[in-house]
Amino acid sequence: MSHPVLQRQYLFLHNVRFPMFAKYSEPHLYGSLVGQTRNLYIPSTGNVTLGAWHYLPKAFYDAHVNELQNTQAEALNALFDEALRTYPTYVFLHGNGLNRAASFRVRTCTDIAQELNANVFAIDYRGYGDSTGYPTEQGVVDDAYSAVQYVRERSRSATADSGPGIAIVGQSLGTGIGAQTALRMYREGQHLDALILLAAFKELRPMVTEFSLGGVIPLLRPLEWLPIKDFLLDTFLQYRFHSLEALTEILNGTNDPKSVNQPVIIIMHALDDAVINVSHSEAMFTRALNITGATNTMSGYHIWSSSLPDFGYVRSIMSKTARPPEHRGVVPNSRFVLPRSALFTFVELEKGGHDHLLRGNVDALRLMMPTYMLGDDVK
């Protein structure tokens, strides 16, 4: 596993192509509504072309369903671009292996499009699906950044300097890519409205021996027994994905009045995740506590926590000037109250495994997002 090519195959699993022979130009075959999703291709660095699916917000789809199902390509693109200018967008970054047509990924995207009434822009990184090239750490971060910039450029109208909000949603490997993309935007002074990490890992190094293929086969667990394990990893590991350090730099901006506003950060991790242990996300929340000093009475932040039946344990770092959710009142048709727009929220789900954290829980995500990141008020 010291060879860079073998490491790339092990980490990205980009040659595990499923569904096989996917018909990317017909996304409705994989779970979205007819006309709700367009297939498109966008440029990235190194002359790479990325395959992507753009899911429409449910309300926009319902209002234009006849046009969407009976219009030629050029007019269709105009409709999809109109949705980007009027509704918030969630850029979805998937985990390793498979492609954007995998059923559980389509389910996540359609749930967000429907329940949050927002665009979802899902890419296949270089080397995945019908995207060209092969994955590297810098390359896949460039791909995610290119997707965000594509959305940013098309969400602005001719008369406005800014458009609707943009969030990044990363799952598994996509959390490492999403954290690095958010850090790049932060360093460049670009505002990101929310960063949502599903089954996150703090960095790649411990995952080398912790990772189990399919949550069952611990491929490199024997490395733990070698006295020279640390030497081997330090010397030969080509990939890092330092998510914890990326979040640390972003959160340190809370103490810098000159920095760009930090995104709302939400981490969701299931206790029954057999692939990435929940301790990784716990470490991220602990780091956020240390940076904000939320346990200190002199801090401008405090901790809101609640154990919610049939859901999980929620801890949020909130500004002391924000109204607690109990004082806001229960949102109609919601199962419970949750802090909206908290600086950092960690949700330990009772169940959800590794790939299905949002199944049945998009309503909870809805309660935690800033209201402008929900497309409900778009006319």
TrEMBL record:
Catalytic function, reaction form: a monoacylglycerol + H2O = glycerol + a fatty acid + H(+); a diacylglycerol + H2O = a monoacylglycerol + a fatty acid + H(+)
InterPro entries according to UniProt: AB_hydrolase_1, AB_hydrolase_fold
GO annotation terms (biological process): monoacylglycerol catabolic process; phosphatidylserine catabolic process
EC number assigned by the record: 3.1.1.23
Domain AB hydrolase-1: 91-264
A Gene Ontology term for the protein's cellular component: endoplasmic reticulum membrane
UniProt keywords, alphabetically: Hydrolase
Keyword Membrane: no
Single Gene Ontology MF annotation: monoacylglycerol lipase activity
Record bears the keyword Cytoplasm: no
SUPFAM superfamilies named among the record's database cross-references: alpha/beta-Hydrolases
UniProt xrefs under PANTHER family: ALPHA/BETA HYDROLASE DOMAIN-CONTAINING PROTEIN (PTHR12277), FI04476P (PTHR12277:SF194)
Protein's UniProt name: Monoacylglycerol lipase ABHD12
Species per Swiss-Prot/TrEMBL record: Malassezia restricta (strain ATCC 96810 / NBRC 103918 / CBS 7877)
Protein's gene: abhd12
